[in-house]
Amino acid sequence: MTPHEVMQAIKHPTGDIGAAFYFHPDTLERGKQLGLDGFRFYFLGRGGVLGDVEADVIRSAFGYFEPGLLAKMWTTAKERLAPRDAARAYHECCHAFGRSTFADVGGLDAYVDAATAVIGAVDGGALALFAGVRAEPVPDDAPGAASHQAMVLREMRGSAHLAAVAAVGLPTPIAHAIKRPDDIALFGYEVPPTVTADDRAALDRAESITDDILAQAFGVLDDAQSEALVAGTLAMHAAIKA
Q1: Which residues, 6+ apart, have CB-to-CB distance to 227 below 8 Å?
Q2: Model pTM?
Q3: Which residue, of 14, 57, 194, 215, has the greatest Cβ tally within 10 A?
Q4: Where are the alpha helices (DSSP H) in the chain?
Q5: With DSSP H G I counted as helix, E B as strand and the rest as coil, what are the percentages for the chain, rounded to 5?
């Protein structure tokens, strides 16, 4: 498989896998124990790898969210818990989800090997959120590690895509409205932005640029690793959809 074929095969499933623990009941319960509701645990848990920073820094790493909503969630959440502590607790939820969901999934050691190779091959420049999660420790067990690395791969493509959206001059609210038209209110917007044909063409260019940014990293995989990455991704995706 070519790097492009591998990217296309895992892109959408990895997005689902990497986010599957975000609002899982066990994650929500852990947030409650820490004094955080689900939305605040999401913001602080994802962004906490960047440290105790201002809301505008988190907005630059997240994109897409309405600035006022993001600022409120981030600021009030970090008043209750230190961001780095929240990130570590959030990652523990990710690992626990993997152990409970992927325990019977085969091929995870090979998946983790391939995912780790791709993750390590990315330069990381301009990809702050990805760099933050990449620096965090990976569990030793295969199900926990697979869940963790799927989460990192999700942030990898998300960070690269956000950079690509900026490169084509597309405002993030419009990019979000094109990709997630049913989630306008969830991301804090009262009125959907107007989307033009030029906007859609720009987002298509951003997708292509995202692939260009990441192609070199996927290019480090040999055929066996490529097959293991795709097979592991599809197996985990089937497990979360079962």
Answers
A1: 1
A2: 0.97
A3: 14
A4: 3-19, 25-33, 38-47, 55-62, 67-78, 83-101, 108-121, 128-134, 142-167, 172-179, 197-218, 223-241
A5: 75, 0, 25
